[in-house]
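Pasting as-is:
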Amino acid sequence: MKPEHHPVEHLFHATKWSWQGFKAAWAYEQAFRIEMFFSIFIVPLAFYVGDSAIETLLLLLSWLLVIVVELLNSAIEATVDRISTEHHELSGRAKDLGSAAVFLCNLIFAGTWLTLIFV
């Protein structure tokens, strides 16, 4: 059984591990680097396009959802590759499902932006 940590100590460690995750995503995941590049334009544009705080929040959250699911997809891919780099139907299925989740988030992102810009 793992020893209990003080809540502040736990928060410190959790923050450190999260930062390591961001660094790993930057180092190993091209899609993450591309999304960070697009963030340079998308975040300010959300403040310009949104007519209210709620609209701006929806625009930003739709983009954040893409990034979050991309990170989860990268974690799935790394885990599958850790188990074996040999091609297996279930490994391919796991990776395809993660990719499909990212695709759906991109549709949500596009739909949110198009709706708030044109409707």
